[in-house]
Amino acid sequence: MIKKIASRNKFRYVLIVSMSLMWIVVYLQRVNIGALLVDARFLQELGLVGQTAQQGLLMTVFLLVYSLANIAAVPISNRLGSRKAILLGIFIASGAMLAGGWMGSLAAILMVRVLLGIGNGIHFPNMSILVKRWFPPHERGTANSMYGVGGCVGMIVAFPLFSTINSRLGWEFSFFIPALLALLCTFPLWMRWISDRPQDNPYISKEEINYITASYQNHQTHVPETAPKIAGDKSLLLNPSFILLCIAYTAFLCSWWGILTWMPQYLVQARQFDINGTSNNLALAYLVAAVGILTGGRWVDRAERKSSIAILALVCVAVATLGIALVSSPVLAIVFMVMAVGINEFVYPAVWSMLQMLMPDSLMAAGAGIMSGVSNLMSAVSPFAIGWLIQMSGSYVGGLLFLVTISGLGAVSCVLLYQQGY
């Protein structure tokens, strides 16, 4: 079957589908916390009942370490190559998850989250590196969305799966099961379906290699003439376009992590949905997100200026999040939540496609690692800040207004990118 796909000059899609499947399982590892925050036994055993700030800390600690690991892992990616770096990341994360099921204290679970952040931080930037090397510029929006949709699918599966696991087997198995699934998903890496470059792959046809590599000959024509150029690692951090991309990606991540962490509890406690109703509503939201990211990827490939997609999306996310906070009807709150989660996904392929336009191949590892790391670092305060605002005000409105403000800031950064020609 693999040879048949390769003969059709479409082997690059084997790579991207394999990456997407791995990313589904990686997301199951990192977001089991969302379901655990509404599991009475877990909260009781770890002393987290009523401690919303400490509950938010479980996600914030992961995000802080994950952010730093994205940056620190740049030399690892350059030295090992993307295939081996992804393998290393999965092994570290799965080992941490296997240990997590045996832990019975907040401090121990926080250490598991630290190791999980390291493993995921090594893994993530390498997917963008592979997209740049394996796909021509006019296909990268779709490619970015195809592996990114793994996170959405993971979220569709996560809450129903972990709710069932927690109720029938116990919260410990919400650590064991994702760890084992991730190890199974390393099969494409061992079989070398995924390689650092098309030229290194034993399955791909020469015609497909020529099709991919031909795009690099005209790489500079895809960078707007008005955009500030990047000469090396030092100038990367001061490049205005790169800084604006980091702000836009931060806005996307603040809404992603904030809604991902707090919506289960918000729907149960503030809107009086039961666990089953909450599970169904969250599954619907992330199903719409999956459609959103795939649709957004296609739109990004067709858009002359990719930032236009991100501008429209971030403005709509701000309006939808405001709706969640202000409407009195629980049903309308669900509608606005679904809109916010789904439309936010249009930002993802736009931002990563713009980064792949901006970065030369020699700086792609640094660019992907630093943008992901810095943006995740800045957005890491989002779950904790929302939890603190909820605890201080006694209402979820303050936390949601925080997300509205951040989305507006992201939209402004994309307007400036549009003016630069992106």
TrEMBL record:
An MF annotation (GO) of this entry: transmembrane transporter activity
Localization terms from the record: Cell membrane
Chain ranges passing through the membrane: 12-33, 53-73, 85-104, 110-131, 143-163, 169-190, 242-263, 283-300, 307-326, 332-351, 363-390, 396-418
InterPro entries reported for this sequence: MFS (IPR011701), MFS_dom (IPR020846), MFS_Na/Anion_cotransporter (IPR050382), MFS_trans_sf (IPR036259)
GO cellular component: plasma membrane
Entry keyword set: Membrane, Transmembrane, Transmembrane helix, Transport
Keyword Transmembrane in annotation: yes
Highest taxon in the source lineage: Bacteria
Membrane topology of this protein: Multi-pass membrane protein
Name this polypeptide is given: Major facilitator superfamily
Pfam family, one: MFS_1
Organism: Syntrophomonas zehnderi OL-4
Residue ranges of domain Major facilitator superfamily (MFS) profile in the record: 15-422
Main localisation: membrane
Lineage: Bacteria, Bacillati, Bacillota, Clostridia, Eubacteriales
PANTHER family: FI19708P1-RELATED, SOLUTE CARRIER FAMILY 17
